[in-house]
Amino acid sequence: MAFTAVTNPNRAASTGAYSDGLIVDGWLYVSGQGPIDVATGKAVAGNIEEEVRLTLRNMGDVLKAGGCSYSDVVRCTVHLIRIEDFDRFNTVYQEFFTGTLPTRTTVQSMLGLGIKVEIDCIARILTAEVESAG
To answer: What is the CATH number of domain 3-133?
Structure first.
């Protein structure tokens, strides 16, 4: 089984010992994304709405680099530092995910770097090129 690493094309600084995404058999697994300035590798503090938007933009960059879009996502796992922010999080989340929504688990977690949210996802790659390579 071949693995292909996917990197956010805007990334100039490493933020850890992991791939931004990994393509395996026509599936893209996106590592936990947060409100990180990928040019500097530094967390960007803001209110929950600002942090969710930046997190989902970072996720979108990895999805695009892997040949996917938000509409290809089948599963998300969301970590919120404050579960009380769920409704505010959900409002922003719905700006990015429309139509048939991916399955999702949302949990309250302790997160590093002072961030309020982290999201990972799994997406199906539906291109003929990837399908024939798989």
So the answer is: 3.30.1330.40
